[in-house]
Amino acid sequence: MQFVQNGGGLFMISDHDKSDRNNDGIDSPAILNDLMQNNGVAKDPFGFQIDLKNISSQNLNNLTPQTNPVLNGPFGAVKGSIIRNGTTVTLHPTANAQVRGLIYLNSASPTGSKNAFLVSSSYGKGRVLAIGDSSTIDDGTCRGNDQCYDGWNDPAAQNRALFLNGTAWLAKAI
C-alpha cells in the first residue's frame, strides 16, 4: 500500500474463485481482497473488490466510453479482451472516487459499478490496474496437465496492447 501511495504502480492479476493452485485453501481473489481490506494502511484504498465468480469463457468487447491511455495507448488500441475461467470486479467509488471500469462483461453497463473485468484506480501518488483473469496475459505455456490459453496472442482480443499500455500507464510513461 505504501509503495502505491508513494507513487508506485501495481498490476493486480486475479483469477477465478476456487483457483487455489497450491492447495492451501486460499485463491487469488481472496488474497487480493485481503490485501485491500487488511493491510494496516487503509480499508478499500483502491475502491474495488474482486468478485468470487468463475466465468468460463467470454470474448469481451464492452469497453467504457471514456478515453483512456490503457485502452488507446502507444502499443495499440484495445477493442476487447477474453475470459477463460476468470472473474469480475465490483467498483466502490464512495471508497475511492478515482476507480474506473475499463472493460466489462458484455451483458453489463459499461459505466456501472458491477461486472467490470479491467479497472483502474489511483491511491496517493500511485496507480493501480486490476484484471479478472490470468489467461489474458498467458503465453500458452504452462506446467504439467494444466490447460493454458495463449491470451497474449488470442485473435479475439488485443491483450498484448492492453498489458503493454497498462504497464506504461502504471510506470507513468503515458
TrEMBL record:
Gene3D superfamilies hit by this protein: 3.40.50.880
- InterPro entries, from UniProt? Class_I_gatase-like (IPR029062)
Task: Note the superkingdom of the native organism.
Answer: Bacteria
Q: What is this protein called?
A: Uncharacterized protein
Q: Which organism is it from?
A: Reticulibacter mediterranei
